[in-house]
Amino acid sequence: MVNLSTIDLNLLHVLAVTLEERSATRAARRLGVTQSAVSNALARARELLGDPLLVRDGRGMAPTPAADELLPELAAAMGQLRSMIEHRRVFDPRSSTRELTLACADNSQIADVPPVAAALAREMPLARLRVVSIDYLVASGGMSAGGLDAAIGVHKRNPGLRVAPLYRDPTVGVVRHDHPIVGQRLTRGSFPRLGFIDVHIPLGRPGRGHAMVEQALRAQGLVRRIALVVPGFAAATMAAAASDLVAFMPRRVAVALGSHLPVRIVELPVKDLGHEISLAWHERTHKDPAAACLRKVIMETLRAAGGGGCDEAPQRKRQQRRHDGGGSGGH
Q1: What is the CATH number of domain 166-275?
Q2: Of 149, 165, 222, 268, which is the most exposed, with the fewest CB atoms less than 10 Å away?
Q3: Judging by DSSP bridges, how do beta strands 246-250 and 161-176 pair with one another?
């Protein structure tokens, strides 16, 4: 049996961050320590666990199978420990220096993150918002694996996952300004003459949003001839601006990118084609006051609703109201 009193908990924290970053240099930067300190901790972790954990792979480091199996459990344990300690301290958003991690695709990175970051800077001026991709979310084991405080996107309700609606984003077409075929609308008759740009976001594979669009098109007897596949909407818009290809994307990101690129938005021949965008977080962070503040800022900002700040006293009053007879949901 392992003697827990001989294990340095800080060693486990350094190990978790190093496995997430897959780089001693990036882990040191994130932890605010020297690279040699991270390397020494990694050597001690290897001895403790009897496994190389990370091995050289080109310019980076690749986790061993044992490390891949360990990371979700380690991250969850560290997240629970952090939440336990944070929850028992009086939370002051003005003085909190927490790093909060938000996962989202590039459409939300472009259209949603800027106003959220500005609002969070007002509520938690000393905190740091870290935005990661959907690739990171999938590769790291999802919201349950730890290390993530919230995610914006198209979500299904799963055990341990809380979901709150944010907004509905209609799907539109994007073409270059002087497109020779497409006018103000993308007509059914133009489909066979056009090439389309497909966007595969999670690990280079079609996601839920892609499946919804394809299902709606097939129901109307429409088929896209895919000429180009890219991993994000920014690349899709730039390709549409430089060719006769047509890109489909959420209206919010099309509007944001259209203000910088020579493209225009066209309506689709399929009615009510859009995505229900929501905020998701895991049960393990539900009572974490810093994560709750981030969620509150995101909801109020993206729902275009006003509201108060993230101070501890109002939060406790809301929790008391829910306990006394209020509803469910919230942050």
Answers
A1: 3.40.190.10
A2: 165
A3: antiparallel
27 neighbors 17 (Cβ within 8 angstroms): yes
Contact indicator for 95, 123 with CB cutoff of 8 Å: no
Where do the CATH 3.40.190.10 domains begin and end in the chain?
166-275
Helix, coil or strand: residue 290: helix
Alpha carbons 29 and 87: distance in angstroms, whole number: 26
Q: 35 is written with which tokens?
A: 């690279």
CA distance 304 to 210: 26
Across 193-202, 245-254, 267-276, least confident range: 267-276
pLDDT, tens digit (0-9, with 9 covering 90-100), for 137-148: 888 877 876 689
User: pTM of the entire structure?
Assistant: 0.68
Q: How many CB atoms lie within 10 A of CB 212?
A: 16
Q: Phi and psi dihedrals of 83, rounded to 5?
A: -65, -40
**Closest of 92, 142, 103 to residue 293, by C-alpha:** 92
State mean pLDDT over 126-141: 90
pLDDT of residue 3: 64
Token pair 């730890």 is found at 146
Q: How far from chain centre, in Å, is Cα 299?
A: 15
- CATH architecture observed for domain 1-88: Orthogonal Bundle (1.10)
Q: What is the mean pLDDT of residues 182-206?
A: 90
